[in-house]
Amino acid sequence: MPSPLRFKDANLRLQDFEDYLLVECPQCHKRAEVRKMEAPHSGARISCRECHFQSQDTLIRYDISLSTYCNSCGHSLKLVKLMQKEPIAEITIVCPKCKTTEDYQPKIIRLDLSNVVNKGCCDPYFGCELWLQSAFKSDVFWATNYQHLSYLKEYIQSGLRERNNREFFTMVEKLPSFVKSAKNRIKLLKIIHKLEQK
């Protein structure tokens, strides 16, 4: 009987597989790539070789809010604009009660989306569906790119899974239980084989 395959955790985190992500092109629905832009830029660029679609986006957003009173009649004025691409220094508001028009300075909160953990079945930059994903019962099995898929395959097919000295939780330690379960090994490896051909 052959000895079980051995997996030794390389102490990789999900961020180690996010320099580029494979996604479904929003224009032609073929495979496209999302790549993080190099510093000092904060954002990403999406490009598709099939239809030549390209776009880039910054990962900086602004939440704009205003809570004040009309200077003419004292009526309460409230306004919220979330996830704006540009800050707004002044907002012109018409009071719904006295119809006076005035400019107000809103509160601006700068958000850096690169710090937001919003992974899963879509990329965090453009919201495109990940290319490498498949339904598994009531869950979704996914990978950011082929390197990530290969690392998951090594882990799933192994009978012996060894931890490595580390000072943080690694990606495999954070995997959902359906991926870690040995009883799902054969079905998951079939899914991985199909995704490798995609």
Strand order of the largest sheet: 2-3-4-5
Please mark out the parts with pLDDT under 50 across 5 or more consecutive residues, or reply none: none
Largest sheet: 4 strands, antiparallel
Mean pLDDT: 86
Strand tally is 13
Rg from alpha-carbon coordinates: 23 Å
Class derived from helix and strand content: mainly beta
Helical amount: 10-25%
- Helix-strand pattern: EEEEEEEEEEEEHEHH
Count the helices. How many? 3
Tell me the span between the first and last alpha carbons: 33 Å
Polypeptide structure, described:
This protein has three helices and 13 strands, in the order E-E-E-E-E-E-E-E-E-E-E-E-H-E-H-H. With 198 residues, the protein is mostly beta strands. The chain has two domains: 6-59 and 125-196, no CATH class; 60-115, no CATH class. A four-stranded antiparallel β-sheet has the order 2-3-4-5, with no helix packed on it. Strands 7-6-10 form a three-stranded antiparallel β-sheet, with no helix packed on it. Helix 1 runs antiparallel to helix 3 (185-196). The longest helix is centred in the C-terminal third of the chain and has 12 residues, at 146-157. It is elongated. It starts with 5 loop residues before the first strand and ends with a helix.
